[in-house]
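Hello, quick one for you while I still have it in my head. A protein chain has come my way and I'm curious about its shape. I'm sending you its amino acid sequence along with the backbone structure tokens. I'd be grateful if you could look everything over and explain what you see. Here's the protein in full, and shout if anything looks odd to you:
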Amino acid sequence: MDGRLYAGGEDYEKEFDPKDYLETYYAFDSGTMAENEILKFNLENLFQTFTAGGVCGNLLIDIGTGPTIYQLLSACEVFSEIITSDYSEQNLRELEKWLRKEPGAYDWSPAAKYVCELEGDRHRWQEKEARLRKTITRLLKCDVTQPHPLGSAQVPPADCVLTLLTLESACPSVDAYRAAVRGLVGLLKPGGHLVTMVALRSQHYMVGPKKFFGLHLERETVESALQEAGCQVLRCDYRPISYSEACSKNEGICFVVACKGSSV
């Protein structure tokens, strides 16, 4: 560990290593128990949200996709188009490698098999991956600290905005977090859904030997930010579980589904 605390923005672009990140947090059953427990928590909540939860439609925008696709494995069954986005060109390149089945692309088959098992047929994981590759239509740059997080990119209002473990690492303050939530809600059509997972009371997280900033957020702060942005919180699944101490310093996690009001 080099001792420095890296932040978002330029630090993130230059210092964040997607391969280290994937190996630390998404190794599935070969990884540490805490990271696996949180990954499965997310997969199960996403499955619930996009099946029995009834969140579906034409367009889903994933904000802060990073180098990962696990968060889209259930969504691709109920959305006809998915737009992914990230601040880092390295992350977008890693995602593109998976989409194109290039050598060295990360193996997401354990996560795909887990989701297919939740859906009732573990053996259709290859069909699942093919469907997701077909459903992702665009890879865009995003910056959640800006009023228009997708910049000048032309995108229609979305039925759903998804953002997992993004805002607490990108926003330097609670005020910036609240502004970022407003920006994401602005991407939604009235009645659309914002789905987010947050590592609560975060201080930092590790990517390889490098320590990155994490914003301290309480569950109440997350819910009030959504409400102030014009959303009704439909569900908040809080769990008092945290990442392993060697990987991240946080206390608890929450998965939230909110709906944008018709007057926003």
About this structure: The two ends are 45 Å apart (CA to CA).
